[in-house]
Specification:
Chain C: Keywords: Cell membrane, Membrane, Transmembrane, Transmembrane helix, Transport. Chain C: This is ABC transporter permease. Chain C: Belongs to the binding-protein-dependent transport system permease family. The complex is a heterotrimer of chains A (541), B (315) and C (289). Chain A contains 19 helices and 20 strands. Chain A has 541 residues and is α/β, with parallel strands linked by helices. Chain A has a domain of 69 residues. Chain A is globular. The two termini of chain A are 27 Å apart. Chain B has a single domain, classed as MetI-like (MetI-like fold, Orthogonal Bundle). Chain B is built from 13 helices and 2 strands. Chain C is mainly α. Chain C has one domain: MetI-like (MetI-like fold, Orthogonal Bundle). Chain C has 11 helices and no strands. In chain C, helix 2 packs across helix 10. Classes of the chains: A alpha/beta (541), B mainly alpha (315), C mainly alpha (289). The interface between B and C is large, with 47 and 39 residues.
Chain lengths: 541, 315, 289
């Protein structure tokens, strides 16, 4: 008998339908991958299993776990189930732990509650569990508080809480989305190990096809609250019977066409020269009057870019890549070294002197929601860099230029009279790009520009970047931790680690044959759909 | 924890020092010659000059400031000319009324507000929530001195359960003394309790929406358990802030309330001293009140650090 | 991953619709409007002349002639409350104006500039907050003499750090947003960014704080007048009326009742308005409903 059986589950919040007649089964010890894009209802399916839905949610259908009717069970029965028979791991490790309780208390609490163990026994099991998830007592005593741990370590604590009582089913909702690729691999390996050892069933929810393929025995593809396809992982993904599955898989591996990719850069002057740049931040003070310890975010970085060139700056989170980008954009000043753009040093210029350089250097950010003032209309948002022109355009000219920029990114002119919240994430990223190109800059710095987007949208936005590179000859500095993005769109790659650039070279060359340890870690950890499918098929013979 | 405490004490002391400069400067520019006020309009110029010399009014400002501060530090607050007694004695005599009044009100308002706020948050949207928060909404709008008048009318004039005003002194016994403070503390406490209850409720609701509450529920903890063990402590952080502010508010409130009830407390003392231009008393009492506000805020910050480990580790 | 974050409400037609469906807001607006209308009407018409003393009609209980009764000089209490509203509102409006006018630029400046300026402002705030507000108001009115103008100044000064703090906290939360970085990449300076991006995004919290301070201003004015330090007779004020009522509680409790109700209703109306505004303007709270 299956461990969990979902039959014709429908769910609505208020009058908005979220799930439409979902069917899903997971056998004991089986790993089920649940994939889909934003708004597909994956998370709500998981919360239904835990019955931790918002108050306004109404569910119909049948959900049976180990013979218990989840939708009808009394709350007390659900409390016995949660944490004991079903554990759950959440997406955001930074907020998932109570900041005022020690990690020991938080792991032991569930153990004491369910087993009635005394404090000492519960703490002993908590200690063993934390040890198993890679937080040994010697380095991570039970008395640590969450804020003393990094994101990856906190996620390990959340996993320890979820797995402390060896549940029959573990639900992991995007457990690695907030982490960088190297941490992602570590956490996935940890989950895989725990599931195998304790023979737990696992419901792994992810938007990343490659991650799911790597982990899951079977896969369920969801879209708009409905199940599109369900089946054995390798078969489903290699056959790609359902058109949506095919679409997802293709988008995951999408490489934009860039016919004349090396045209721009053969010779000529450098567009950008970064020379031995250093950035120190004041760190934490150890004692009241002791000088603050310095933290070196960027450590003697040097490189140069030609006009029209597309370069990736890759590295793990916290490696200093965003700090470097901000200094190149003259939004932050280096502690040492020099940055030259169009032949002139930027580091000592005043805001007024920077104007002609800023016009030639624009930026696209990661978060399509946070990068617009919510109270301005698109026209004003896109026109903002026009401030940098020497002669201010008339209102009519301004609208003309905004319309042109919107057209170039695939939006319509009338869109300029809307507010940003009226657009989807992908469209907002297009608006972001329109703002970046309206002054016809020579360099666009893009800080993780597609990592918040769904795969199909991501493919379209990457295409747009490629197209603009071809059409306008604009150079890109792509900052990313995602190697598929680097491979898709850049000629050169620089690998950054602990504030230093440890490897540079042609993108294909570096990614296929990484030399430095940091690059090798990144490449090995990067999820790759083709590779994952191949391995699955190989394992099955 | 230690660096945090040290820093907090230092800024507290700096604020106190600044405050002393402000108090001194403000009273310097206050119109009216204390010597003239003491001796009356008909005093001879010679007598005035001698008294000025005695009071040190002819010394340069800096000298007077420093000697005043040194006096404060050694407990010498100067001598009141209207009461002809040392200010420190006056303060001691009046503090035994004001301090119990402020403390009882603070305890009363906390004891009412926090349970009501938690209760309302736990039954959000239910009748109990709507009713208690409706009452709190009205309570916030009630001026404490008006509330005091109404209380006097009901409990002193009509039911004659407690005295309408005045203070028999602690020598008359603990109960008569407390009895005289019941209405004043209720009048002070209830409007404050209304504010505190609203803050507690919204802080609880905010915390109950956090991710870690979901984590705790996913562990199998029942709702009530999560409310007490996980939400409450986190919700206490904004509540503590308001408590600290309320202490200052209560101190100021005593000025009005002591006037309503004819209580011989610090508030009434300072109010009368201001109208009589008894500067030395005003200076002393104001400094004392300011110091106690600063002290309470340091205590609140220490409570923060006790509640929130993030504050303990990085100063 | 599932639900997209809701973005703040744009200031267009949907704001009005949202506001009108919020019960607190509508009730608050109605009450506040009523009190304001009463104050305005008092300029052209009151049921009786508030300066006219009719000794024969002393301390009459409410009746058809005098709806709220008369005071110890035989003046009509309803008329006094109407004229008193004028006073309370004027004092509170100007006091909030002083607080906002000085506090908001200070707070924005501190947030934009950081470093020493910020530290200095915070210490200044600490200093002002160390003085119990009413005590200092008593001090100020004692120095400059009692009267409505000095009451306004006294209350206004204590609004400065309140608004400075709120503006600073709001501005600090907006500064790290990516659209500010984008504006900086577009070459905009701190002043321009503050005007174009910071202020519109903290306007709502300032508005809400404004209604709260307005309500507190009314309470403070009543308190000062009660102590005899605010509005001076013969100009009627709610606080003064309560002071006069106090000694006559035994014989004429209605003297205390109506001015008290006037204060409560006004403050309640403003608080409801503030709560309503907060719900309407803060999408995070609205989403919970």
């Amino acid at each position: 008998m299956a461990l969990i059986e979902i039959e014709k589950l429908s769910l609505s919040i208020g009058r908005v339908p979220i799930l439409k007649s979902i069917d899903l089964t997971i056998g004991a010890g089986e790993t089920m991958g649940l994939v889909g894009e934003s708004g597909s209802g994956k998370s709500m399916t998981a919360l239904t299993l835990m019955r931790l839905l918002p108050d306004a949610a109404r569910a119909t259908g049948r959900v049976t776990f180990d013979g218990i009717d989840i939708l009808a069970a009394p709350e007390a029965a659900m409390c016995r189930l949660r944490g004991n028979d079903i554990g759950m791991v959440f997406q955001e490790p930074m907020t998932a732990l109570n900041p005022v309780k020690t990690i020991g208390e938080q792991v032991a609490e569930g153990i004491r509650w369910h087993t009635g163990a005394n404090r000492a026994d519960a703490e002993a099991s908590a200690r063993r569990m934390l040890e198993r998830v890679g937080l040994p007592e010697a380095k991570f005593p039970l008395t640590r508080y969450p804020h003393q741990l990094s994101g990856g370590q906190r996620q390990r604590v959340v996993i320890a809480i979820a797995c402390a009582l060896k549940p029959k089913l573990l639900v992991a909702d995007e457990p690695t989305t907030a982490l960088d690729v190297v941490l992602q691999k570590q956490i996935l390996d940890l989950l895989r190990g725990l599931v195998a050892e304790d023979r737990m069933g696992l419901l792994l929810i992810s938007h990343d096809l490659a991650v799911v393929t790597d982990m899951a025995d079977r896969i369920t593809v969801m879209r708009h609250g409905e199940v599109m396809e369900e089946g054995e992982t390798a078969q489903t993904l290699s056959a790609q019977v359902h058109p949506y599955t095919r679409q997802l898989a293709e988008a995951s591996m999408h490489v934009p066409a860039r016919p004349n990719r090396h045209a721009a850069q053969a010779g000529g002057d450098n567009l950008l020269e970064v020379d031995a740049v250093v950035r120190d931040y004041p760190g934490r003070r150890r004692a009241l009057f002791a000088p603050a310890e310095k933290f070196r975010a960027v450590d003697h970085v040097s490189f140069s870019m030609k006009p029209g060139q597309s370069v990736a700056l890759v590295g793990r989170s916290g490696c200093g890549k965003s700090t470097l980008a901000r200094m190149i954009l003259a939004l932050d000043r280096p502690t040492g070294g020099d940055i030259r753009f169009l032949g002139a040093s930027l580091t000592s210029k005043s805001e007024a002197e920077l104007k002609p350089y800023r016009r030639n250097m624009q930026v696209v950010f990661q978060d399509p929601y946070g990068s617009f003032n919510p109270r301005h209309k698109v026209e004003r948002l896109v026109a903002e860099p026009l401030h940098l022109l020497d002669s201010q355009p008339s209102p009519a000219e301004r609208r003309e230029m905004v319309a042109e920029a919107l057209h170039e990114v695939g939006l319509r002119a009338p869109d300029m009279d809307k507010y940003p919240h009226e657009f989807s994430g992908g469209q907002r990223q297009r608006i972001s790009i329109a703002r970046a190109i309206i002054t016809r800059p020579k360099l666009v710095v893009a800080d993780e520009p597609v990592s918040a987007l769904d795969v199909s949208i991501r493919a379209q936005v990457l295409d747009l970047f490629a197209e603009l590179n071809q059409k306008l000859g604009v150079a890109y500095l792509f900052i990313t931790h995602d190697l598929t993005v680097a491979r898709a769109i850049t000629d050169e790659v620089m690998v950054m680690h602990d504030g230093r650039i440890v490897e540079t070279g042609r993108t294909d060359a570096v990614l296929d044959d990484p030399q430095s340890e940091a690059a090798r870690d990144l490449v090995a950890a990067a999820p790759d759909l083709k590779r994952a499918i191949r391995r699955r098929l190989h394992e099955q013979g | 924890m230690i660096p945090f405490l040290a820093r907090r004490l230092l800024t507290g002391l700096a604020t106190l020092l600044l405050a002393s400069v402000v108090v001194f400067a403000v009273l310097e520019i206050l119109p009216g010659d204390p010597a003239l006020l003491m001796l009356g309009m008909n005093a001879s110029p010679e007598a005035l000059a001698t008294l000025r010399e005695q009071l040190g009014l002819n010394d340069p400002v800096m000298v007077r400031y420093v000697s005043w501060i040194l006096g404060l530090l050694t407990g010498d607050f100067g001598r009141s000319f209207t009461y002809s007694s040392p200010v420190i004695d006056l303060i001691a005599e009046r503090a035994v009324v004001s301090l119990p009044l402020a403390v009882i009100s603070l305890l009363l308002s906390t004891a009412i507000a926090i349970p009501v706020g938690i209760f309302a948050a736990a039954r959000r949207g239910k009748a109990a929530d709507t009713l208690s928060m409706g009452a709190a909404q009205v309570g916030v709008a009630v001026p404490n001195f008006w509330f005091a008048l109404i209380l006097v009318y009901i409990f002193a004039v009509w039911l004659q359960l407690v005295p309408a005003g005045g203070f028999p002194g602690w020598k008359a016994g603990l109960w008569p003394g407390l009895k005289a403070l019941i209405l004043p503390s209720v009048a002070l406490a209830l409007p404050q309790a209304a504010i505190l209850a609203r803050v507690t409720r919204s802080a609880m609701l905010e915390v109950l929406g956090e991710d870690y509450i979901r984590t705790a529920r996913a562990k199998g903890m029942p709702r009530r358990h999560v409310l007490w063990r996980h939400a409450l402590r986190n919700a206490m952080i904004p509540v503590l802030t308001i408590l600290g502010l309320q202490f200052a508010f209560l101190l100021a409130g005593t000025i009005i309330i002591e006037n309503v009830f004819y209580l011989p407390g610090l508030g009434r003392l300072v109010f009368q001293a201001i109208t009589q231009r008894d500067l030395i008393v005003v200076e002393g009492v104001v400094m004392l009140l300011v110091a106690s506000v600063i002290f309470v805020n340091i205590v609140v910050d220490i409570c923060y650090a006790l509640v929130d480990p993030r504050l303990r580790s990085n100063a | 991953m599932s639900a997209e974050p809701t973005s703040p409400a744009p200031t267009d037609g949907s704001f009005v619709a949202a506001a009108l469906s919020n019960r607190s807001f509508v009730a608050g607006l109605f009450i506040t409007g009523l009190i304001a209308a009463m104050a305005l009407v008092s300029f052209v018409w009151t049921p009786y002349d508030v300066t006219q003393l009719v000794v024969a009609d002393r301390m009459k209980t409410p009746s058809a002639q005098h709806w709220f009764g008369t005071d110890h000089f035989g003046r009509d209490i309803l008329a006094m409350i109407m004229v008193g509203a004028r006073n309370s509102i004027a004092v509170a409006v100007v006091a909030v104006g002083i607080g906002m006018g000085i506090g908001v630029p200070l707070g924005c400046w501190a947030a934009a500039r950081g470093g020493f300026v910020d530290e200095a402002l915070m210490r200044f705030n600490d200093l002002v907050f160390a003085f119990p507000a009413l005590l200092s108001a008593v001090l100020i009115t004692a120095i400059f003499g009692p009267g409505a103008i000095n009451a306004i100044i006294a209350i206004g000064i204590f609004n400065i750090p309140v608004f400075a703090r709120v503006a600073r906290a709001g501005a600090l939360s907006v500064w790290p947003r990516e659209y500010i970085l984008a504006a900086r990449a577009a070459g905009k300076g701190k002043v321009l960014i503050t005007i174009e991006h910071i202020l519109p995004n903290i306007a709502s919290i300032l508005l809400v704080q404004g209604t709260i301070q307005f309500a507190l201003g009314i309470l403070a004015e009543a308190g000062l007048s009660y102590l005899g330090l605010g509005t001076q007779p013969p100009m009627p004020s709610w606080g003064r009326m309560l002071f006069d009522a106090q000694t006559r509680m035994m014989v004429a409790p209605h003297l205390a009742l109506f001015p008290g109700f006037a204060i409560i209703v006004t403050v309640l109306g403003l608080n409801l308005l503030g709560d309503g505004l907060r719900d309407v303007l803060d999408p995070r709270l609205r989403r919970e409903r």
